[in-house]
Structure formats: structure tokens, C-alpha cells
Amino acid sequence: MTECNPLHAAHYPDQARCTTVPIVENGPLARDTHRVRIQCPEIARTLVPGQFVMMRLAGFNDPLIGRALAVYDTFPDAVSQPAGIDVVYMVKGKFTHRLAECRPGQLLDVWGPLGNGFEAKAVDHLILVAGGIGQTPFVTVAQEALGHRQYGTPPRSNARCGRVTLCYGARSADMLAGVGDFEQLGVDVQLATEDGSRGHRGLVTDVLAGVLRGSHGSRRILCCGPERMMQAVAGVAAQHETPCEVSLESPMACGIGICFSCVVKLDDGQGGWDYRRTCVEGPVFDAAKIRW
Ligand SMILES: Cc1cc2nc3c(=O)[nH]c(=O)nc-3n(C[C@H](O)[C@H](O)[C@H](O)COP(=O)(O)OP(=O)(O)OC[C@H]3O[C@@H](n4cnc5c(N)ncnc54)[C@H](O)[C@@H]3O)c2cc1C
Ligand code: FES
């Protein structure tokens, strides 16, 4: 049997590219939320759904440390080959405020694709649960699950799902970003807002519970958002005996497994726990194994 060195898994950073690339477009998508498009064919060709990139403003030392950002989707060149990626970001602190001011042509240092991403698995009903800016890894997942697009080099097999639902919660209607992108793909979108300005008034977990009650056949939940929301989703998934994977947004410094700033406590399978690095062993983990 061939020994597989886990330090050289397909998604480990020795497969990633570090590059300085121009911004193609950068503009608002929703309140405090922008989409930036960057030209980076090498990254776009190899990435799989759920992977992320690290980004810095090229030539600037403030902020010094890169930021992790999920890949929202790839875009094609004139001959339909992946030419680059879109990233959707919420304007929050130092990096994202500066990024929002960047114009086309300005350069970014980008390294990726990074992280394990979501495995492609065929189920009858794939349920995506997003809170805040947590919808960003799910466009590629939906594209793949509904058979619109393949990702990776070589393109990974198309694990078609019968139905894809997105349960998406935000504070208010003006903070929901990219809803139309999901609807266009044929995703059944179920919204929740805290102030009731669109969709269900309340939490996305209420919406999820209703979707699970009306769901039949094999199913799988993928979740991304604030930690407390992911913990609550993991609880709902366990109550409904549904496998659930979460994509963590742990703060990161290097993104390539060196600094250990991104560790999370995970069950070790022997009654104890051990630290795992979100950047190389995640960001996607089995929700049932996380020590929240
Ligand atoms: C795998 C991964 C994917 C991500 N994908 C996206 C994405 O697609 N879009 C997006 O907008 N963001 C994403 N993030 C979060 C992103 O990395 C940054 O944390 C975020 O953009 C804020 O950076 P900033 O420099 O603007 O804010 P900062 O100046 O770094 O911080 C602003 C405030 O946010 C807090 N903060 C910083 N980082 C985090 C964090 N990770 N979680 C919770 N609070 C934090 C700080 O304590 C501070 O209060 C992702 C993170 C990870 C790990
Ligand atoms: S961010 Fe450095 S080890 Fe994960």
C-alpha cells in the first residue's frame, strides 16, 4: 500500500501559489459588503469549493499580516478557462476598510488556494447554512452540487445533489449579499433577518429547523458564520441526526501552517482533544468533533 504523507495532501500549501496580482473590479454588493475581482489564473484553475486565499495590500506594511478570505467564485477568460477569482468581504477593520478604497489596477499579494475545502458528496438534499458574511464559500459549492460547474485540476467528479437549500441569516435585509447569485443557480433560498425586514424574523437556526422537518432522503449540512451560530447549527443538526460540517473563520496570521495562531480544539477520538490548525487541517471540520 502506498504511504500517503498527510503533509503533502492535495490541499496543503506546498500546492499553493503566492502571487502579486491586479484588482480587476472592486465595488459594493450590499451594506458594508463589497466584491473584489482579481486576476490570478493559477489559483482559479486549481481551487475547489470551500478553499480560501490569504491577501495583503502589495507594497504596504499596514496591516502587516494577511487576511484569510473565502473564494466566492472563479470567473472565465475569453476561451472559458478560469482567469481569476471573486472575493466578497464585509468592511470590518483595518484590512477591509483599506481594500474597499482600492481601485482597479492596484496590486494585492495573494497566496492560495488554501485549506481543505468541502468534499464533493452526492446527497438528496444539501443544506447550506450561512450567517453574517458566511455565505461566501457556498456559491462554488452550489455551482458544483447543481452540476453547473466543475472545479480543480483535474476537474473533480461532479457529485450532483437532488436539491440545494441555502438558509441565510443577517441583521437586516440590506446586509444580505449575493442572494440573487444563489437564486440564479437554482438554489432554494430561505432568509432570516433579526429585524424582520426580509424573510423570517429571527434566527437562521429557526429556518434550518423548518427546512429539516420538510426534508427527505439523505442530507448533509454545511455551515459558515459566527462561531456561536455555527455551534447552534451543530446542535440542531445533531437533534435531527444530520451530518454537519462547519467552515471556521478563526483569525489567521500565515495561512500555511507555520504560526499556530489559528488552532481549534478537536476531539481526538480517544476521549480527549487536541489542537488542529484551521488553515491546513480545516477550515472545514466535522461539527460533531469540535470542542466549542
Ligand atoms: C478561512 C476564512 C475565510 C474567511 N472568509 C471571509 C470572507 O469571505 N469574507 C470576509 O469578509 N471575511 C472572511 N474571513 C474573515 C477575514 O479573515 C477577516 O478577519 C475580516 O475580513 C476582518 O479583517 P479586517 O482587517 O478588516 O479587521 P481587523 O482589523 O482584523 O478586525 C476587526 C474586528 O474583527 C475582529 N476579528 C478579526 N478577525 C476575526 C475573525 N476571523 N472572526 C471574528 N472576529 C474577527 C477583531 O477582533 C476586531 O474586533 C475569513 C476568515 C477565515 C479564517
Ligand atoms: S494561520 Fe498560521 S498556522 Fe494557521
Which helices and strands occur, and which strands form pairs?
Layout: E1 17-30, E2 33-39, H1 41-46, E3 52-57, E4 67-70, E5 73-76, E6 82-90, H2 94-101, E7 107-114, E8 125-131, H3 138-145, E9 163-170, H4 179-185, E10 188-193, E11 200-201, H5 204-213, E12 219-224, H6 227-239, E13 244-247, E14 263-267, E15 273-277, H7 278-281, E16 284-286
Parallel strand pairs: 8-9, 8-12, 9-10, 10-11, 12-13
Antiparallel strand pairs: 1-2, 1-7, 2-6, 3-4, 3-7, 5-6, 13-16, 14-15
Helix pairs in contact: 5-6
Strand order, sheet with most strands:
4-3-7-1-2-6-5
CATH arch. level architecture of the largest domain: 3-Layer(aba) Sandwich
Gap between N and C termini, in Å? 37 Å
What class, by secondary structure content?
A: alpha/beta
Provide the residue-averaged pLDDT: 95
Helix content: 10-25%
Tell me which ligands are bound. flavin-adenine dinucleotide, FE2/S2 (inorganic) cluster
The 3D shape can be described as: globular
**What is the domain total for the residues?**
2
CATH fold-level assignment of the largest domain:
Rossmann fold
What is the count of helical runs?
7
- Total strand count, please? 16
CATH class of the largest domain: Alpha Beta
Question: Cα-atom Rg, whole angstroms?
Answer: 18 Å
What do you see in this structure?
- With 292 residues, the chain is of the alpha/beta class.
- The chain has two domains: 6-114, Translation factors (Elongation Factor Tu (Ef-tu), domain 3), CATH 2.40.30; 125-249, Nucleotide-binding domain of ferredoxin-NADP reductase (FNR) module (Rossmann fold).
- 19% of the residues lie in helices and 34% in strands.
- The strands form three sheets. It has a seven-stranded antiparallel beta sheet. Strands 11-10-9-8-12-13-16 form a seven-stranded mixed beta sheet, with helices on both faces.
- The longest helix has 13 residues, at 227-239.
- Bound molecules: flavin-adenine dinucleotide and FE2/S2 (inorganic) cluster (FES).
